[in-house]
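Each lists sequence, tokenised fold; shown next:
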Amino acid sequence: MINKTGRGTWANRWTFILATTGSAIGLGNIWKLPYMIGVNGGSAFVLIYILSILLVGIPLLMTEVMLGRRMQKNPMDAMRDLAKESNTSPAWRYIGAMGMLTGVLILCFYSVVGGWVLSYVSQAAQSSFTNITGTESSSHFDALLASPLTLLFWHTIFIMITMTIVARGVTAGLEKANNFLIPSLFAILLVLLGYSMSVGDMAASATFMFTPDFSKITATAALNALGHAFFSLSIGMGSIMVYGSYLQRDASIARTSIYIAIADSLLGLFAGLAIYALVFANQLEPGAGPGLIFQTLPIAFGHMPWGNFFGTLFFILVAFAAATSAMSLVEPTIAWVVENTKVSRKLAATGLGLLIWVVGVAVLLSFNIWQDVKVAFGLGIFDTLDKLTSTIMLPLGGLLMAIFAGHFMQKQYSQQELNLKKSSYQLWRLANSFIAPIAIIAVFILLLTS
């Protein structure tokens, strides 16, 4: 749909929910959350994670959607006009600019990981994991990282898929893609969950994830849970703001934000249940860390009935999640270019895609030919971009958005957009203006000192 200003809009509230859920559901839910549960003691981490979603995630999600819908513009122009409306400094527009840059920088290395996933879809479909041993699985992953040409091929494919969808616009591209990908993603997850229940140790998985062991709760585990709740909802990079700018005026921001948070959290937890049922059934290590899905799960699939088929389904699931997030990472910048220049959306997507592809080439080379090259923080290219975005830019963006909405934006405007009862509005203000900033600062300190 096209609104009066010529901008695209979501066809309805549910389309917005699907698209924003797609933005939130990414590798963080299926790749990162399960291994974080494993290395942080299981159920105790899950409990704090859920509380963090309720106290910090949902209020900040509401804030970013509200800021986007208020002005119905890209993040940089929206923050500029919001500051003008509230008679405060125009420098607030740089929050939007930083969010746009953050998304682009994340995709520069995210696309490389997305390429890993596509490679594993192909390998699983070719039965490469049949009867694979632990040593062989590790060697298989190491061989992938050591091959720049293989990484380049899959990185290129991932970028082409992402930019082709984004270039088609809000209705023909983002909306159609998410309307297909998100239901398919949940359907595949349910099939995998059923498979794990039949051949895996679901009882051990459920006990591990949902039986609280309060002795495992440490300050570090609590802050990690809080940090992941913040990051898993794609807050602080402008993606939710620009998606909110396409939302109709009559849609409830609070209700849709709650639906998105629930869908995002459930997918991550269900994925964890399915993964750990297979891990425990094969006596594998639940705290395997980042290598869980690329080195541990192939072993499980390789030794189970129909393992090749369900292994392929699993990596397709992860690929879908990666694609929906990737689209949202570039949409804020594409929107800014289209709304401020005469460049067409297709040309903007092509140009930005080429830029990200080039930086991505440098990223993938950091795993092999350029593995000794250090950029900042004593880290290689991949790790530098990861640390810069996840430990500095994302928390800072979310913190500044919360401060602006809670302390600089005039109450009458936030009340108009949120359209909440007085008690609910005051609860949102408390969470957004005080609880969330304190929590973000705590996570900020942890990440910078770790």
About this structure: Confidence is low (pLDDT under 50) at residues 1-6. The chain has one domain: 13-449. Residues 13-449 form a domain with the Amino acid/polyamine transporter I fold (CATH 1.20.1740).
